[in-house]
Amino acid sequence: MNIKASAPGKLMLFGEHAVVYGYPCIVTTVSPRVYVEVEKTSGQFKIDAPQVKDLRFVEETVKQFCEKYKVDSKILIKTYSDFSSKFGLGSSSAVTVATVVALSKLYEIKISKKEIFDLGYKVILNVQGVGSGFDIATATYGGTIYFVTGGKIIEQLIVKGMHLVIGYSGTKADTSYIVKNLELRIHNSELEHRKIFEKISKIVEEAKISLVNADWKTTGELMNQNHKLLQELGVSTEKLDKMCQVAVNAGAFGAKLSGAGGGDCMISLVSEDKIKKVESSIINICGEVIHVNTNI
Ligand code: MEV
């Protein structure tokens, strides 16, 4: 029998990096999904995943699942994706969560969302060595989430009418490298970095309210402030800064990088009538606009 499951990608709205150090973040799902199909075979464990460059997430998920639930791994797994892993939209976490869900269906094991999160987070830590688990939480729970490191708090937020224009900088970021590199720098000046994280954390708390109240002007200003603090952390790039600047000049409420920085994507919050103008401003400086729905 062939079993299917899928999970969505994500976009960080507020609080990246600080969330690795015990602070909250806000993250939302995007419409593109990663799909997983599993079936039992009589032979060895096999993966057919032409779009996945890094098979370690699928391999580690199968290993952890089979160990925890004491089932064998004589299975064939196929995965395919709506989106390229180059954008940093969370294809690794989505494939991890979709694999856990597919395996639980295949072996008819009842598994709670918290169990999916815990197993998925373990996989991320085993493979990457670092990470807050925010992406696993988003792929597991869906929607827009207020999240604290390691899943200490996972709170769903009701956000309606948010319009984001998303720009890809053209460079794939290496999240593990950027997170580990920041960790080294924090080692040398802990207090200074803690102060920045405290400020980011305050922004996240304010954004939690403004997002739910659909107060886009305040949310946009908070995005600009969050971006400045990410610049101070040294994780932005010239291209990301420029894309944020042109988006704001074209009428966006605010803009910031989204994710680890060092490349990947920026997001800008816009009113519906400004979407085209903001998109053009990003394209004009050679950014790539990615069309996805959010808060799925
Ligand atoms: C990367 O998309 C976001 C970081 O905060 C890392 C993490 O939370 O796992 C930089």
Automatic annotation (TrEMBL):
Q: Which Pfam families match?
A: GHMP_kinases_C (PF08544), GHMP_kinases_N (PF00288)
Any GO BP: isopentenyl diphosphate biosynthetic process, mevalonate pathway
What does the entry list under GO cellular component? Answer: cytosol
According to the UniProt entry, its GO molecular function terms are: ATP binding; mevalonate kinase activity
Q: At the top level of its lineage, which domain of life is listed? A: Bacteria
Pathway as given in its UniProt record: Isoprenoid biosynthesis; isopentenyl diphosphate biosynthesis via mevalonate pathway; isopentenyl diphosphate from (R)-mevalonate: step 1/3
Q: Which Gene3D superfamilies match?
A: 3.30.230.10, GHMP kinase, C-terminal domain
InterPro entries linked: GHMP_kinase_C_dom, GHMP_kinase_C_sf, GHMP_kinase_N_dom, Mev_gal_kin, Ribosomal_Su5_D2-typ_SF, Ribsml_uS5_D2-typ_fold_subgr
**Residue intervals of the GHMP kinase N-terminal domain:** 57-143
User: Which residues are in the GHMP kinase C-terminal domain?
Assistant: 211-282
Which UniProt keywords are given for this protein, alphabetically ordered? ATP-binding, Cytoplasm, Kinase, Lipid biosynthesis, Lipid metabolism, Magnesium, Nucleotide-binding, Transferase
Q: What is this protein called?
A: Mevalonate kinase
Q: Give the lineage.
A: Bacteria, Candidatus Roizmaniibacteriota
